[in-house]
Write a structure and sequence with these properties.
Length: 238
């Protein structure tokens, strides 16, 4: 019985309305209505998990996110994370986290993964880890790519929080499951996954209705779109 997740979702939706966040979801039909699935998204904001979870709402699915142990150790977020049955990632016990996620998938849950493992300060898709592919293959469930664009304007690495900023568009785009042919290595499939996520991100960035208010507001755009975010090579060295 879900005691924590539904109230959290209701609160988030209320805040979306209060702040007039213009959230659009495209491709939710690619998330299965039953059975396990791995949802793999880009990562540009500390709020991404909220919106990735929202993207699964049309399919009436709750997403169990894999998140670093420090989030579970926090006295405020920890009880919420455990109550929503998210999965802690302990770098000293990675195998245990993998087994817990695989068990959730085999039990019919949707597990959310940010395969870049950290926020991309270039606002492009960084090199990704192979864990999402290995999880989906181990549990024999679909691997679904996803892109989220807009929450970084509220809270991202290296910039002040603006959690009360109003009228921010958020675009969520979900793609078809990535094929995982037998005999193809997880690393090779991860390359395809990264390309698929970047393609979805390119699409929502092109479709995004807002433009920077001026030169100093160009920080939230990637360099290849005329923004002042660092180039991927520079961001990787930061």
């Amino acid at each position: 019985m879900e005691l924590v997740y539904p109230p959290v979702i209701a609160f988030a939706k209320t805040m979306f309305r209060v702040l007039d966040l213009k959230v659009q979801v495209d491709g939710a039909e690619h998330i299965p209505e039953t059975g396990g699935a791995v949802l793999a998204s880009n990562h540009s904001s500390y709020l991404d998990f909220i919106f990735c979870g929202f993207g699964a709402q049309p399919a009436k699915r709750l997403v169990r996110f894999m998140a670093k142990q420090s989030v579970f150790d926090n006295k405020i977020s920890g009880p919420l994370m455990r109550g929503m049955r998210h999965i802690s990632v302990d770098r000293d016990n990675g195998a245990g986290s993998f087994r817990q996620a695989a068990a959730a998938l085999k039990g019919g849950e949707v597990v959310g993964v940010f395969p870049e493992a950290t926020i991309s300060e270039s606002f492009t898709v960084k090199e990704i880890k192979s864990g999402a592919v290995r999880l989906a293959r181990s549990a024999k469930v679909p691997l679904i790519p996803m892109a989220v664009w807009g929450p970084h304007r509220l809270w991202t690495k290296g910039h002040p929080k603006e959690l009360t900023k109003r009228h921010v568009p958020v675009l969520i785009k979900i793609g078809q499951a990535v094929e995982m042919p037998k005999g193809v290595s997880p690393d090779a499939i991860s390359v395809v996954l990264r390309e698929r996520i970047q393609g979805l991100l390119d699409a929502v960035q092109r479709a995004y209705p807002d433009k920077p208010a001026g030169p100093e507001d160009r920080w939230w755009l990637p360099a290849h779109l005329g923004g002042t975010a660092p180039l991927p090579e520079a961001a990787a060295a930061m």
